[in-house]
Automatic annotation (TrEMBL):
This is FMN-binding negative transcriptional regulator. It comes from Agromyces kandeliae. SUPFAM superfamilies: FMN-binding split barrel (SSF50475). Pfam families: FMN_bind_2 (PF04299). Transmembrane segments: none annotated.
């Protein structure tokens, strides 16, 4: 991923929020047997861990195909993204772009014992079912519990402690406020590239930037006033 200091997402908490809100991950391995291998699975944060620990599972034989536990993997988390037309800018020469937020997480998976795998599977189900009007957990009925225990044998649970990450939050931070507001309005509209999720992410980013600018301005004004009184 191209490095650009203007768009770097360096905050561990920011990456955790991205994982919580966009838990469908791409897991990439460079294997001895097959070269590059990629699979797609939901992930959960272990909220009790000090750093970023991901909990997930793979369906057999993906643990063999990925050679899990033998090397580092790359886990890609993709948040809101979308096309930004140059027609949404000002009258100056411009080209279109693509705004996005994503994180590349690196770590070596630890394979879980069957009982821990079953617990993680249950936590995954509860996490997503919790939004349903009538949540159905993995053990909601004796029949569900028995079925889950049978099919769990076809999965392998994983903990992936993240040792390093590169994350990017590209939300037109290099554009003036009036252009940013126009882009957000277009994304919130009903045009061919409307994306309310991306508009919300841009709004979150620029609200924080504007608040930080206002705080710096207030601090500078206070310092100037104090100097004049001295």
């Amino acid at each position: 991923m191209r490095r650009n200091p203007s768009f770097t997402l360096a905050s561990e908490e920011g990456v955790k929020r991205l994982v919580r809100e966009h838990p469908w991950a791409t897991i990439v391995s460079m294997t001895d047997a097959s070269g590059l291998v990629a699979s797609h699975y939901p992930v959960l944060l272990d909220e009790t861990a000090d750093g970023i620990d991901l909990l997930t599972h793979v369906g057999r034989p993906d643990e063999v195909v990925h050679e899990l536990g033998r090397h580092e993997v790359l886990v890609i988390i993709q948040g809101p993204h979308g096309y930004v037309s140059s027609g949404w800018y000002d009258a100056n020469p411009a080209v279109p772009t693509w705004n996005f937020v994503t994180a590349h997480l690196h770590g070596t998976p630890e394979l879980l014992e069957p009982e821990e795998n079953l617990r993680v599977l249950g936590a995954l189900v509860d996490h997503f079912e919790g939004r349903m009007p009538e949540p159905r957990g993995m053990r909601s009925t004796p029949e569900d519990a028995a079925y889950a225990e049978r099919i769990a044998a076809g999965t392998v649970g994983l903990r992936i402690p993240i040792t390093r990450f590169v994350a990017k939050n590209k939300m037109s931070q290099n554009r003036p406020d009036e252009t940013v507001d126009r882009i957000i309005a277009e994304l919130d509209g009903d045009g061919p590239y409307a994306s309310p999720a991306l508009a919300a992410e841009m709004r979150r980013t620029h609200d924080a930037l504007r608040a930080a600018r206002a705080a710096r301005g207030a601090a500078a004004s206070a310092a100037t006033a104090a100097g004049e009184r001295a």
